[in-house]
Amino acid sequence: MEENGVVRVADDEDFKSFRRLADGVEGWSNKYDKNGIRVWLQSKFDPETRIRLIKVHKMLHDVSAATTYDVLHDAAYRKKWDRTMVEGFELCKVNWTNDISYYQMKCPPPLRNRDFVMQRTWLDTGTEYIIFNHSVYHKKIPPKKGVIRGYSYLTGYLVRPKGSNACEITYVTKSDPKGSIPSWMINKLAHIFAPKVVDRLHQACRDYPKWKSKHDPRYKPWLYPEQMSLPPLDPSDLLSKEECISDNSLDESDIKEEDFKDSDLQDEDF
């Protein structure tokens, strides 16, 4: 599933692999189980990337799986609820269930902002919803001055209904913030940020039906492909990793943990 920078349409085996990650327990260690959120860390350490897979699971007792799936897709709504997003947009379609998109996230000082260019894939089986992405390289979204280009090896969601107005969601992520960020900060970001993503998503799902009823309620191209207006991917726009070098002048290697005493990363529960 994890093919560095490769753009291709996901197949059945890719979705099976993602389900195994989301549902599996072997090779995972439980790090947190409180307030309805469970967090696991993959036991195996990848010495090349310095990154472990993180998995977060939560039952959403007051929102449907369909609503959760809509919220994960709705780019217009994300601008309202995702307070870490600086900029985000869909660039082009690979096919009706795959696109290439851009996301820049605000990081708390003294960290620099990060951005990602990703191929996103989705599937609605009728009994579950799956969305996952990995980083790719595209000519029309070059690295930006002052922003560090991060890398998503794999990030995604598995959503299953648990009744008419409840669902369970599993969030899996293996992302490298890149730059010269210290290893202790990578671990801190992963342990704290991933659960917060799910918590903020839950609140966004509660508010979505009311918001959507007033904002083009019938427009859902992730459900109705005929509504998708994205231009098709031009294969000549795809680049290699070597052609997309981030701003190497941004040095964060001297960051100390006390620099984050009052930042949004602090959370005594994690």
Automatic annotation (TrEMBL):
GO MF, one term, reads: lipid binding
Q: Which PROSITE patterns match?
A: START
Predominant location category: other
From the Swiss-Prot or TrEMBL record, give the protein name. START domain-containing protein 10
Which residues does the annotated region (Disordered) include? 247-270
Instruction: List the subcellular locations.
Output: Cell projection, Cilium, Flagellum; Cytoplasm; Membrane
START domain location, by residue?
A: 26-210
UniProtKB keywords = Acetylation, Cell projection, Cilium, Cytoplasm, Flagellum, Lipid transport, Lipid-binding, Membrane, Phosphoprotein, Transport
- Record-linked SMART domains: START
What InterPro entries does the database record attribute to this sequence? STARD10_START (IPR041951), START-like_dom_sf (IPR023393), START_lipid-bd_dom (IPR002913), START_lipid_transfer (IPR051213)
Please name the source species: Patiria miniata
